[in-house]
User: What shape does this take?
Amino acid sequence: MPDANPFYPKLIRAISAPRFASYAAKGGGETSALQRYLWNTALCEALYPTFQILEVSFRNTGHAEIATFAGNEWLKTGAPFLAAQERESIAAAQETLTARGRTITEPYLVAELSFGFWTSLLDVRYDKIWHKIIKGVFPDMPRAIRTRSEISPRMNIVRKLRNAAVHHHSIWHWADLAAQH
Assistant: This one.
């Protein structure tokens, strides 16, 4: 039986019936569904500091290490070792910065590029650059797992969890959420 709170129809309309239904599917009425929704929000929020530190440090150390062989402005000038998709991401970031009235600088480009861009640099097609930079990007990682082939799937798991959390998807029911964190 639905709860008699007049707030719920407005809430359901605002967040959408299908989204709210995923929280209501476990039963307990609208109050329980709202509690699950708020629990999910708290879980996502609790992950933000970890994501922020990882994302900022990964992109900044990755950029700095690539700069050691490709030059300090490798994003701005276009690195020939990048695949078309990554070059397109850089061009889009430059357009965004220009539209915002920002000067296109390397620090702005580093920050503007998505986490997906940075994790794409872990793809097998970039295996040759990781031999040069991996120790600088992951200096404290145990040597046995400090390989592009070990790090890439791990970072993609993180990217998927990060995207789910920051795009407000339901993660509260993930059985392996603690292990992923």
